[in-house]
Design brief:
It is a single chain. Helices cover about 80% and strands about 5% of the residues. By secondary structure, the chain is an all-alpha fold. It has one domain. Strands 1-2 form a two-stranded antiparallel sheet. Helix 3 runs antiparallel to helix 4.
């Protein structure tokens, strides 16, 4: 039996205590966990959980796929509405520009300085851009209300 320093008597645990005290002096101080170590332990937990039973995994992955599918469908719907409205604004802006050209050509035509074909082309382009702009807004409003 070894001599115990705690109470001055012989005991069996004394040598272990002294051994552990000496070894703790040799060990470097333990640093706190880094982010990579924390993420690594979390990834291991996630892997063990995901590795579980096939039925549970299938339910979990189907739920994840359904949730992300619903999210992306909403994002896609919103972006499509935005595209329709922005293209409508662009077409109506082109309408204003081409309508100004139509008016210039009309005044030149009334003063016999240009031919009728330039007036017809400017008028047709203006009408076409006006139709595209209005139809784009109309499609956006139909899509927003859910009728199509």
């Amino acid at each position: 039996m070894a001599w115990c320093e705690c109470d001055g008597q012989h005991c069996r645990a004394g040598w272990r205590r002294r051994y552990n005290e000496r070894m703790s002096d040799l060990r470097p101080p333990q640093s706190p966990l880094t982010w990579s170590q924390l993420l690594g332990t979390g990834a291991g937990k996630l892997f063990r959980r995901a590795k579980g039973t096939p039925e549970r995994n299938q339910r979990w992955f189907h739920g994840l796929r359904a949730g992300t599918g619903a999210f992306w469908q909403t994002v896609r719907h919103t972006l499509h509405l935005l595209f329709l409205e922005v293209s409508g604004v662009v077409f109506l802006t082109f309408t204003v520009v081409v309508a100004g050209a139509f008016l210039r050509e009309w005044h030149k035509y009334t003063m016999h300085q240009s031919g009728v074909e330039r007036v017809v082309v400017a008028g047709a382009l203006s009408a076409m851009f006006f139709y595209f702009g209005l139809s784009s807004f109309w499609r956006a409003s139909r899509k927003r209300s859910g009728s199509s």
